[in-house]
Amino acid sequence: MFRVLTLAATALAISAAVAQAEDLEFMLGNETSVDLVEFNVSIAESNNWEENLLEGGYLPTGNEIGVLIADGEDTCVYDIRGVFSDDTSFEEYGLDLCDMGGYTFTEE
């Protein structure tokens, strides 16, 4: 009986570690001259944008926030889209957000 409980506890610990690995946290910055009003991410293999991660809010110019992607995916590679208060948008594809640790929108 002791072995069964040990195996069950080990399985739960592994499951918890996998669940945490599926959530991706990174810093999002806005160094443009306009507010960021929408931020979407999608796994690189998708043809559709997921929900707005800033729903109900915005990221003012010159600021950064922590973003959590809790989509249950086991990937670090995402496409991103930012929509700004002046109705412009910017998209970038195939970013490894785990390696980057963050993303900052800038003006060229």
Describe the protein's architecture and organization.
The protein is α+β, with helices and mostly antiparallel strands. The protein has a single domain (24-106), classed as Immunoglobulin-like (Sandwich), CATH 2.60.40. The chain has 2 helices and 6 strands. The strands form 2 sheets. A 3-stranded mixed beta sheet has the order 3-1-6. Strand 4 and strand 5 form a beta hairpin. The protein is globular, with a radius of gyration of 18 Å. Mean pLDDT is 83; it is low at 1-21.
List the helices and strands and how they pair.
Blueprint: H1 2-22, E1 24-31, E2 36-43, E3 63-69, E4 77-84, E5 89-96, H2 97-100, E6 102-106
Parallel strand pairs: 1-6
Antiparallel strand pairs: 1-3, 2-4, 4-5
| Helical residue percent band | 10-25%
Radius of gyration in whole Å, from Cα?
Answer: 18 Å
Looking at the overall shape, the CATH architecture is Sandwich
According to DSSP, the number of beta strands is 6
Chain-averaged pLDDT: 83
Shape: globular
Distance between the termini: 64 Å
As for the number of domains, it is: 1
Q: Looking at this structure, what is the CATH superfamily?
A: Domain of unknown function DUF5300
- Number of DSSP helices? 2
Can you summarize the main beta sheet?
A: 3 strands, mixed
Ranges where pLDDT stays below 50 over 5 or more residues in a row are 1-21
**Percent of residues in beta strands:** 35-45%
Give the spatial strand order of the biggest sheet.
Answer: 3-1-6
Q: Given this structure, which CATH class is correct? A: Mainly Beta
H and E string? HEEEEEHE
Structural class: alpha+beta
- The fold-level CATH name is Immunoglobulin-like
